[in-house]
């Protein structure tokens, strides 16, 4: 036996181990996919009443405003712009209809409006009546026990889809616990609201397991960013969204004309070659930059979608400017395209926050 024999044996064993792991990977994922999955997201909304938030969440027409993957909702038996009553159903549309239409039919199982313990009206302060669900999660039971110890009775919304998404998941469940939180600042009481989302489903495909990070991020964006934005005083913020959507739409078309039939003036001022002198990847990025303008215009009336359109436009513009500066240096008169793009998007972000906070949040209820 030579000195190299032990190393050779070790290498062969390592290769066999890797091969076995690859062969067993589908089985491992398949076994994991049989286990129910639970996701939990929590947010504290400042100076917002629980009833206002619950009415918003109980109305399916508001879902596409805060869920980036939701395209729309429809129902034959309920007004989607009003809170669902127990037993009513609604279809939530995902994907890219009509090319890739995906839908989940949700049934409202419980809808109880938050109320103070001192105002026990025999359950009259609610959207529907108490119901039961055929699926539950450990997190939902813990949240209900924690809510019972608070200073007020927490509101609860429960939606169930037994069929779920075909060939993907079943027994899908959304549970919203809406809890009042009292805080004091400089001897002034402030009414805040804690929202807890417990989502669960039973995977039918390994893809449903792999989708966990996407769903986690989607839930976080919905509750922590788009929900607060949707609840704010709408006139000022909506006007800003529409203004920026219009400006970006016109800018995108102007940039496209400048690239294809003009002298690529904006690109060359930033330090880049003209459009037709760019490499193929650069030309594709320039076209994407032109396309996000009309995209922002198309989404300008969609609340949460409008914000996503502005964000995507800003990211593409900053990325493109950064690549120009990295590959070609500064532009005309030493202009740094990346720094300029960051400053412009910083101004846009500042204007968004100013518009969002110009007036108090809408329709606050008395504590």
H/E element string? HEHHEEEEHEEEEHHHHHHH
Helical fraction equals 40-55%
- Helix segment count? 11
As a whole number of angstroms, the C-alpha radius of gyration is 26 Å
**Please, what is the average pLDDT?**
78
What's the β-strand tally?
9
Structural class of the secondary elements?
A: alpha+beta
Percent strand: 15-25%
Question: Numbering strands along the chain, what is their spatial order in the largest sheet?
Answer: 1-9-8-7-4-3-2
Task: Please outline what is shown here.
With 367 residues, this protein is an alpha+beta fold.
Overall description:
The chain has 367 residues and is of the alpha+beta class. The protein is built from 11 helices and 9 strands. The protein has a 7-stranded antiparallel beta sheet, sandwiched between helices. The longest helix is centred in the N-terminal third of the chain and has 29 residues. The chain is globular, with a radius of gyration of 26 Å. The C terminus is likely disordered.
Keywords:
single chain, 367 residues, alpha+beta, 7-stranded antiparallel beta sheet, two-stranded antiparallel ribbon, 9 strands, 48% helix
Give the arrangement of secondary structure elements.
Blueprint: H1 5-33, E1 37-45, H2 50-58, H3 63-66, E2 72-74, E3 89-96, E4 100-112, E5 115-116, H4 138-148, E6 152-153, E7 155-161, E8 169-185, E9 188-203, H5 206-210, H6 212-231, H7 234-260, H8 265-269, H9 280-298, H10 304-328, H11 337-357
Antiparallel strand pairs: 1-9, 2-3, 3-4, 4-7, 5-6, 7-8, 8-9
